[in-house]
């Protein structure tokens, strides 16, 4: 037929892509007799078409069977699209407040030396995303492209860049307006590019956002596919940020061990990295301190990755760690023989530090079992470490983060301010206020005397965090919401 229509032996399509079977959420074949069939028309009435489309491409390779789950549909895929929508709203509200216009471009920001490390990092990551999406779309690996968009929107833009720059956008100092405009220039470039990149996955959503936020007088389809800009790539800053992200993640794990909220400021953190990485992490010192939420931190380079050598190196560096020793039971059987029970009992009563010291000096430790000496060498023990008292530790690969768990009243006060601010920010959103609205007053009532004494001098800081002109701790308010902080009932309001 194509030969007849075109009068030439040309194929009608350059490539075919066969879709795998759609199965139920348990991986079983859909069948009306089983009652597990999802009708397309009903699905489209209940869920947005773009969400379903994105989920299909995000979930699995096009040629692989796909286990369809509405719960999964409404989890990460929904989070990605919803976050992208809210990021556009955040940009639009804030940029209009500062009268941002198209003349404030990335090139303008570069020429005026207004871009900071977070801006450079995000723009560099965006160039990598453009390369990935271009290649994955051309090779029909749509699931890999969708996962790359997912990672960029959630892990890079929403969870890192926005929190880092939010404080700068809220600083209304007129002398810092150029810096705020530079942030808007970055967000404008990133969000507009994302609209185009995600358009094959979510055509309706991306078209709406593109035209509504960027004053698009024509369809997004008439815009050019983003091109990779090598001049915006900075491998050094990307590597530094990758290290920082790992350290912050490990720090969060240490906080969980110590039962310390991420919002609570801590006194110190001690960080161990690989050789050659200290200077890279130090280039982001101010940002790292803010992300870790600590008063101070130290960075140490280490070489040993595990076992006895690692604990000895950490102790030599003066880090607050203590040794943990276990018996390698499969190895010691032939040495212990009939004394195994007594050997284990004696081992349990022995100070691990004593064993570690002997292994360091003599490469063995001798147990006296009823007058018989049983010598165990380094390989007969499993040596690890934990944090000393008043510290918590977490480790991943060769990265180690130790955080102090003791908190003085000042640290507790700062943490309480963050807890209250978070609840007031949630209340602002619930009552329909935009991030740019500066309200008259925030009220916090029924704090206990100790808590009130701790934070009464921090009213100005709290007012800045929740964008109000003043904070009230005593006067009654018109409409309040009951809340609690670690079991303490309070009443809050914004108006």
What does this structure look like?
The protein has three domains: 1-232, Isoleucyl-tRNA Synthetase, Domain 1; 237-404, no CATH class; 409-494. Helices cover 51% and strands 17% of the residues. The chain has helices at residues 2-6, 40-46, 49-59, 70-73, 76-97, 106-111, 117-138, 142-170, 177-198, 203-213, 235-258, 278-282, 285-292, 307-316, 329-336, 340-348, 352-362, 409-430, 449-455, 459-466; strands spanning 22-23, 66-67, 266-274, 294-302, 321-327, 364-369, 372-377, 381-387, 391-396, 399-404, 439-445, 468-472, 481-485, 488-494. Helix 5 runs antiparallel to helix 9 (177-198) and helix 8 (142-170) packs antiparallel against helix 9. The radius of gyration is 29 Å and the shape is globular. The mean pLDDT is 92.
Task: Give descriptors for this structure.
495 residues, alpha/beta, Isoleucyl-tRNA Synthetase, Domain 1, four-stranded mixed β-sheet
Task: Give a brief rundown of this model.
This protein has 20 helices and 14 strands. With about 500 residues, it is an alpha/beta fold. The chain has three domains: about 1-230, Orthogonal Bundle (Isoleucyl-tRNA Synthetase, Domain 1); about 235-405, no CATH class; about 410-495.
The largest sheet is: 4 strands, mixed
Count the DSSP helices: 20
Number of strands: 14
Computed structural class: alpha/beta
CATH topology of the largest domain: Isoleucyl-tRNA Synthetase, Domain 1
CATH A-level architecture of the largest domain? Orthogonal Bundle
Helix content: 40-55%
How far is the N terminus from the C terminus?
71 Å
What is the overall pLDDT average?
92
Number of domains: 3
The named CATH superfamily of the largest domain: Isoleucyl-tRNA Synthetase, Domain 1
């Amino acid at each position: 037929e194509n030969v007849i229509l075109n009068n030439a032996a040309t194929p009608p399509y350059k490539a075919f892509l066969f879709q795998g079977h759609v199965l139920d959420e348990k991986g079983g074949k859909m069948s009306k007799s089983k009652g597990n069939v999802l009708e397309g028309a009903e699905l489209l009435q209940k869920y947005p078409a773009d969400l379903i489309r994105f989920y299909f491409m995000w979930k699995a390779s096009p040629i692989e069977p796909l286990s369809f789950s509405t719960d999964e549909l409404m989890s990460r895929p929904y989070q990605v699209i919803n976050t992208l929508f809210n990021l556009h709203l955040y940009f639009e509200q804030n940029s209009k407040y500062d009268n941002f216009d198209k003349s404030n471009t990335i090139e303008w920001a570069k020429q005026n030396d207004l871009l900071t490390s977070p801006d450079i990092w995000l723009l560099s990551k965006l160039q990598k995303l453009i390369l990935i999406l271009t290649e994955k779309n051309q090779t029909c690996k749509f699931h890999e492209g969708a996962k790359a968009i997912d990672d960029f929107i959630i892990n890079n833009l929403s969870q890192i860049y926005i929190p880092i720059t939010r404080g700068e956008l809220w600083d209304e100092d007129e002398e810092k307006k150029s810096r705020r405009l530079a942030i808007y220039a970055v967000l404008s470039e990133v969000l507009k590019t994302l609209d185009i990149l995600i358009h094959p996955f979510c055509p309706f959503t991306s078209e709406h956002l593109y035209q509504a936020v960027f004053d698009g007088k024509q369809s997004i389809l008439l815009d050019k596919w983003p091109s990779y800009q090598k001049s915006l790539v900075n491998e050094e800053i990307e590597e530094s940020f990758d290290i920082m992200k790992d350290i912050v993640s490990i720090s969060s794990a240490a906080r969980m061990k110590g039962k310390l909220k991420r919002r609570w400021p801590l006194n110190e953190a001690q960080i161990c990295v690989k050789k050659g990485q200290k200077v890279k992490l130090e280039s982001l010192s101010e940002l790292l301190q803010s992300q870790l939420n600590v008063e101070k931190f130290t960075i140490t380079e280490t070489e040993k990755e595990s076992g006895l050598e690692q604990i000895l190196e950490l102790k030599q560096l003066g880090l607050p760690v203590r040794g943990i020793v276990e018996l390698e039971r499969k190895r010691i059987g032939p040495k212990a023989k009939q004394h195994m029970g007594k050997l284990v009992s004696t081992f349990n009563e022995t100070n691990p530090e004593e064993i570690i010291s002997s292994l360091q000096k003599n490469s063995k430790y001798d147990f006296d079992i009823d007058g018989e000496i049983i010598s165990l060498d380094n390989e007969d023990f499993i040596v690890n470490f934990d944090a000393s008292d008043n510290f918590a530790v977490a480790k991943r690969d060769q990265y180690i983060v130790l955080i102090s768990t003791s908190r003085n009243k000042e640290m507790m006060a700062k943490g309480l301010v963050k807890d209250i601010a978070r609840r007031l920010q949630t209340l602002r959103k619930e009552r329909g206020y935009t991030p740019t609205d500066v309200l008259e007053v925030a009220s916090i009532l029924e704090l206990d005397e100790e808590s009130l004494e701790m934070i009464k001098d921090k009213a100005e800081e709290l007012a800045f965090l929740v964008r109000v002109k003043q904070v009230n701790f005593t006067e009654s308010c018109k409409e309040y919401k009951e809340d609690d902080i670690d079991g303490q009932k309070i009443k809050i309001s914004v108006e």
